[in-house]
Amino acid sequence: MATQVRPASEDQAEFLAQLIGEGLLLESGVPGVYGHGAAFEDARSRLDERLSAEAASRGAERLRFPPVLPRRQLESSGYLASFPHLAGTVYSFDGDERQAAAQSERAANHEDWGEFQEMTELTLMPAACYPVYPAIARRGPLPPGGVFVDAGGAWVFRHEPSHDPARRQIFHQHELVRIGEPEAVLQWRDEWAQRGLDLLLALGLDAALDNANDPFFGRRGRMLATNQRQDRLKLELLVPIAGPEPTALASFNHHRDHFGSTYGIELADGGVAHTACLGFGHERIVLALLRTHGLDPGAWPAAVREQLWR
Amino acid sequence: MATQVRPASEDQAEFLAQLIGEGLLLESGVPGVYGHGAAFEDARSRLDERLSAEAASRGAERLRFPPVLPRRQLESSGYLASFPHLAGTVYSFDGDERQAAAQSERAANHEDWGEFQEMTELTLMPAACYPVYPAIARRGPLPPGGVFVDAGGAWVFRHEPSHDPARRQIFHQHELVRIGEPEAVLQWRDEWAQRGLDLLLALGLDAALDNANDPFFGRRGRMLATNQRQDRLKLELLVPIAGPEPTALASFNHHRDHFGSTYGIELADGGVAHTACLGFGHERIVLALLRTHGLDPGAWPAAVREQLWR
User: Kind and range of the H or E element at B65?
Assistant: First the structure.
């Protein structure tokens, strides 16, 4: 059974065709998976630097993680209960020469070669904050004031094939993570939501901050989504790109003690740490800039360029 | 059947413990998968910039690709015939609520949940040059002189779990790709092998250029390896890191018309293009620097630092 590919709206299809025509994006043959041309990547890497500079100037520690996560961690995290449809797992071959030959022959004919593949100890990275929690927990109790980590513009995976150029299966999510006392964490989350809004407005984008919920799976998920909204655990910065609805360019998430309990992260004076993370979607922000200011970043308004090409 | 994990030599185990103790690498719980601390990542990103600057000054076009490749492309490429043991495939869930609940429960107990996962249209990226060939082929016949692409410090995957810190399952391979006339491509490969050697020597590393072969699978692979060596299709820059044998920090590969034929890349005046690619292993180069000059990059010799912190 093949996962259904979400269609694009007329606006989205036209925008994607323009992006490919201008060499900003490169088609791979799979919906939601693209290469970046030089101009797209230049804007994206400037944004990456800008976000890391904002974090560094406020004391963030820079950590970086690969695009895979230990399977055991995904299993323990609860992710598969909430987002089973978005997770990706890594399989590989561990057979003999005869099996290798059969696998290779079937694959070359584009026939099913799944019987030769087995689950490994790895999954794709669902969100760049996941590896941060155990890394901090391993250090022992938090220092007074807690920690602030910049996990950078990391590749994350969501299995949701779509022809909307703003809905990728794999993209850079720039995540900042705060771990500490409950009040400090909540205040940090709210300050960064305002800072993110200010940045997007300074970039000339028609941004609005709104209450939101994660795309939880199934009926149980609808209840989780309702609770999340009621408790204002997720805020999003919404900007119209192409198509009828605005797109979330960044999200600001409060986890209370969920990850602190899961990974045993202790406050300096005892007690379970609270956590919050926020994620800026690099590609979506660049797409919003291209849609708003035109397909040639060199011709964007000077005030916008000054925000990134400093 | 779980893939066997290669043990580390005593030197390698000691070096890995030092890297983790100093916060340069962060353990994930899976051998060959690590996070990077700030000092490691600073050195790695300086190296990334230096390599891209060398390429840009010689006319390279900057393209960037995600850490996944369309499965169909892997199937057509011949990779599974040569390296079935190294490939990673991406699986996901496409079931209903009942299945999602069963999967989540089994996963939470660390039991087998593979029956709920199906092969997707994606695999992990085996080498960063793979997406370059179809992207260039799609443009039509090459311009006169061919093309030179900098695919950047891309994440690539090799399923070979090991406790040697220099043998990662996922790492940044900085790939440069040349596509054009046979003589021009071979000359470019050889010039870059010399340029790479000069760079590693300038970084104070005990580097040597040598003839090499890929880790082809099985008995057929031994024949392929012998042919590859005889025809000098693969050169490597070898540097001792930790342990008994020197490690390849970079490779310089000549494919003749293999990819040109596979993807139908035509020369400006007709005929099949030749291709070459070279890959610098970011993490291995940083490890060699740390092993050679000490675990504090701030205390490396000035002549070495000037090469990267310009």
Answer: none
pLDDT at residue A1 above 60?
A: no
SS3 at position A277: strand
Minimum distance, in Å, between the CA of residue A110 and any CA atom of chain B: 7
The closest of A78, A37, A193, A297 to B104, measured between CA atoms, is A78
DSSP A62-94: E-B--SEEEHHHHHHHTHHHH-TTT-EEEEEE-
Contact assessment for residue A126 and residue A156, using Cβ atoms and an 8 Å cutoff: yes
Q: Express each pLDDT in B78-120 by its tens digit.
A: 999 999 999 999 999 999 999 999 999 999 999 999 999 999 9
What secondary structure letter does DSSP report for A114? G
Instruction: With beta carbons under 8 A apart, name residues in chain B contacting A68.
Output: 33, 124, 157, 169-170
Task: Give the integer Cα–Cα distance in Å for B241 and B259.
Answer: 33
Q: Where are the beta strands (DSSP E) in B182-296?
A: 208-211, 234-239, 247-256, 274-281
ipTM above 0.90, yes or no: yes
Q: Which pLDDT does position B1 carry in this prediction?
A: 47
Per-residue CA distances from A208 to A219, A227, B265 (Å): 29, 22, 47
The CA–CA distances, whole Å, from A132 to A123, A188, B160 equal: 16, 17, 24
Is-contact A222 A245, C-beta < 8 A? no
Q: What's the whole-number average pLDDT of chain A? A: 96
Amino acid at A267: L
How far apart (Å, rounded) are the C-alpha atoms in residues B223 and B288? 31
Angle between helices A282-293 and A38-56 (to 10 degrees): 120
- The verdict on a CB contact (< 8 Å) between A63 and B28 is no
What pTM did the predictor assign?
A: 0.97
Check CB contact under 8 Å for B81 and A62.
no
Angle in degrees, 0-180, between the axes of helices A10-21 and A282-293, rounded to the nearest 10? 90
Q: How far apart are CA A267 and CA B53, in angstroms?
A: 44
The CA distance from A123 to the nearest CA of chain B, in Å, is 8
The H or E element spanning position B121 is strand B117-124
The residues pairing with A176 across neighbouring beta strands, listed in sequence order, are A150, A278
